[in-house]
């Protein structure tokens, strides 16, 4: 049985079977519970009920320091009190005054203060009272007066500690917020300076200057277009002037001017182009200043040009003069031939000089405007990067500003709350019920101890009973044996102790094992190991009971003879009937009865099956004892050991003289022989194999009481002779693996095979019989209650 296979029916069965054990466990545990109550220390508990009064100022005007929308006022007052009590019990400022003032523990001088505080914390409990109003603080002590005093003092100390703690929290919070506010303010100022420096460095590239830059570029583009057009016109004009001057110079007449004395030569005075240029620039500057401001780029450029020309030296010789001597011949009178300067040409040359000056100015203006446009375009291209950098600075600044404002609000609120707490306008502890005087001791009471002992007894009794059942090895139900071994179970023989009065479990096992087996020693077979048999024979007293100094009476082993109406015999009848049904097609059936190990009831099963086949079913039956190492058939049948097979092999007897018949029953027995001539080894088995074919013809059934499978190899030969094998297994005694291994050792069985379970518990075996039997003292059976039941394969 395993935990997984336990069913409620199994538990009920175990409970009924072990009822006295369970009852004894319950009684013992109840008694132990009473003794424990006697020695258990008695305690008394005093309780004080506290609550928190609402603040005297509306909570909408004063906010706490928590994260909730309403601060600490959003919390449950009862939960707040319980949290504060839990924190207070860890505070030495509360526990130490209580211990020093009241001294609730007599052994305070021998115990350290820390241990005393642990005991005090463990003795204090808190929770909601029965009516649900406030918080109940309780203290447990063996002295009821001390319990009341400690509970009252604890309530006072908890109230004082709550006030001090709140004031300290508010004061510390205010200081912390002030320090943080100063730090954030410094960071905010530094960030403002960083933004100002950034704007100064990137002046003209700021996002808000985009529109102004675009308008300036548009204006400069217009100026650039105008200057380009003017430059083109001036260049065309210059080309025309050059052409006119050349044509006029080629067509004009030459005049002989006398050299030295003759005539006055014309004064050759140079043309002052620099002065003309200055006049033109000043005229244009006046025109621009009439339209634009002084900082207009063209006006600034003209001022720079005028300043440069004024600072330059005068009298440049490279400039043309009014009258130029022409290359000519020298006259005979010592004069030189000159080409006279035409006023028209002179005017053209003057105009050409002005045009060249204007072209030079327009080119410089064109280059200057182009540079301005390129610079503005570069600024516009750098604007996204500048905008991103400025956005980062502004974002950080805004976040710092929000944090600063939040800290400022919190500090203001903290200062208000500090005044609020100092003036005790907040919530206050109030005692609803003062500490009571305990008159009744605290649980566990005597009833608790008794009920606890009863519960422990039930658990211990049921648990131990179930454990003992689970520790049993082997098969418990016929279904388990059939499923595991793969053979049908034709009978379940109950234990003798459960089916008969006056016989216990030990005697039942002795009946199953054999008349010379020591009671309770179901296991090793000393004769198989070559050792003398252990234990003395059991005898009965004058009243027929078992004595430890002798053996069991012979009649108790052949139960089919002395107890025909018993439950065991009824099951043997079932087994015999099913054997007949399983071999209906075979005549002169040879049946081998064996088991895994010694002590499973193999010989008991063999002799009872043989007796029932002969006596009840009228079949001529021969029972052969093939267990030469431990022959027991003659003991069961109350025969002498010889003559038998050993005597025949020794030659001292013939086979016919060794086959003995039971009185009044068609049952013949062939024992193993006298102890001195008992067959050794396989010689007896070989002789049985030799004589078995001839013996089969004489009898309807031949029963072979073979040796156990595990210690010997004889069964392998005997199984080949049999038409059917009956495998005896002791329930809850033989391991399942041992039985499986034994069947595997036998190998393939030529004929039919079946299992007979012995020592089966009553709840797993049929318990109805056909009639009542009466057993008297010594030789008569005691009456047993029985009723009729039809069993599978039974006799009607």
What proportion of the residues form beta strands (DSSP E)?
Answer: 5-15%
Radius of gyration: 67 Å
* Gross morphology: elongated
The CATH topology name of the domain at 488-530 and 538-764 reads Rossmann fold
State the CATH architecture of the domain at 488-530 and 538-764: 3-Layer(aba) Sandwich
Mean pLDDT value: 77
The percentage helix is 40-55%
| CATH level 1 class label of the domain at 488-530 and 538-764 | Alpha Beta
Oligomer: single chain
Distance between the termini: 35 Å
Q: What count of helical segments does DSSP give? A: 23
Total number of beta strands: 16
Structural class call reads alpha/beta
Strand order of the largest sheet: 7-16-15-10-14-11-13-12
Describe the protein in words.
With about 800 residues, the chain is an alpha/beta fold. Among the domains are: about 1-40 and about 450-470, no CATH class; about 210-390, Orthogonal Bundle (Helix Hairpins); about 490-530 and about 540-765, Rossmann fold. The chain contains 23 helices and 16 strands. The strands form four sheets. The chain has an eight-stranded mixed β-sheet with strand order 7-16-15-10-14-11-13-12, with helices on both faces. A four-stranded antiparallel β-sheet has the order 2-3-1-6. The chain has a two-stranded antiparallel ribbon with strand order 4-5. Helix 6 (about 145-200) packs antiparallel against helix 10 (about 345-420), helix 7 packs antiparallel against helix 10 (about 345-420) and helix 8 (about 275-290) runs antiparallel to helix 9. It is elongated.
